[in-house]
Amino acid sequence: MAITVNLRYHGVNGNARKFAEEMMQSGTVQKIREENGNLRYEYYVSLDDPETVLLIDSWENQEAIDVHHDSEMMQTIFRLREKYDLHMESERYANSEEEISEKDRAFLRQ
Asked: Which domain range does residue 46 map to?
């Protein structure tokens, strides 16, 4: 079962955005995307709060997350979080194998 974690990075003076930009420019994001089991690793800037950046981080299963958490890239992420003095909130979702219902599908434009 796939697992998605939404991480909200909060900072000041644009630090959350600077963190995400450095993650991208350093190649760390690409390396994470290339890890076995990674399904999605994307940053989004909040329109409601420009000091918040959302990371959507999806993995095939808990084992893939555990391997990622044991990787050297986590040390890079920890250092950058400290560098930019970021605080975080986390939400975790287990993705269901069920398809979107027909009723819900009616609200999607494709």
From this structure: 3-105
Q: Give residues with Cβ within 8 angstroms of 53, minimum separation 6.
A: 8, 9, 16, 17, 19, 20, 43, 44, 45, 46
Q: Is the pLDDT of residue 96 over 70?
A: no
Torsion of CA 98, 39, 77, 80, to 10 degrees: -90
User: What is the tens place of the pLDDT at every residue in 33-55?
Assistant: 999 999 999 999 999 999 999 99
Q: Let me know if residue 88 belongs to a domain.
A: yes
The number of domains in the chain is 1
Residue at 70 is within a domain? yes
DSSP assignment string, 36-47: TTEEEEEEEE-S
Q: What is the CATH number of the domain that holds 9?
A: 3.30.70.100
